[in-house]
Amino acid sequence: QYTIFLVGHAHIDMNWLWLWPETKTVCRLTWDQALKFMDEYPEFRFTQSQPGAYIAIEEECPELFARIQEAVARGQWEPAGASWVEGDTNMASGEALARQCLLTHDYYTSRFGQQSKLAWLPDNFGHAWTVPSIFSDAGYEHFYFCRAGKGLPTFWWEGPDGGRLLAYNHRWYNEEFRRDRGVVPLEIEDRVGIPA
Asked: Which of 14, 102, 115, 165 has the maximum number of C-beta atoms within 10 A of its C-beta?
């Protein structure tokens, strides 16, 4: 009845308790591995957010960045997200969020020739009620998050001005899909670890 596409993603939390050099190393190793998977499995697809991370790789690993651009052009890699980094939307002003969208749009368009339609904030601890208005005005159509939802996995989230996004929020960002049970939490022991 449905066709489901599973797309890889790496949640690289740039606000976490690690130093900037470590963040760049995590990006480099993770993205290089994603590209190796694409070489080995041509059907493999990957999405990655945060221009703030892309620009670091562009500056320090231009050969890796060029391979990412090629993967985007082939349709195997999707740049996602509406903000430069996956920051808070409760404390930031509406103007700050709009500027995040503008910077992200400009970066993705200039480097990849396309704008993302997917706003991506998996690890925020709340969302301003104006997020659908701001993001939809900026050209985003879909919104993924996994915290602070209302228990509805997929819904139209409408802002105060009527702007809306098709939102997906289902428990957590590590889940498993089973034909007999739908989406279920992915247990720790079911995860596959890939050494750096």
From this structure: 165
Spell out the residues 6+ positions from residue 122 whose beta carbon is closer than 8 angstroms to its own.
Answer: 11, 86, 144, 145, 146, 147, 173
Rounded to whole angstroms, how far apart are CA atoms 11 and 34? Answer: 13
Instruction: Report the predicted TM-score, pTM, of the whole model to 2 decimal places.
Output: 0.84
Which of 121-125, 130-134, 184-188 holds the top average pLDDT?
130-134
Q: What is the pLDDT of residues 104-124, one digit of tens each?
A: 999 999 999 999 999 998 888
CB proximity list for 42: less than 8 A, separation 6 or greater: 76
DSSP strand pairing (142-145 vs 164-168): parallel
46-100: per-residue pLDDT in tens?
999 999 999 999 999 999 999 999 999 999 999 999 999 888 888 889 999 999 9
Query: Which residue in 139, 151, 196 sits closest to 25, CA to CA?
Result: 196
Instruction: Tell me which residues are annotated as active site.
Output: 123
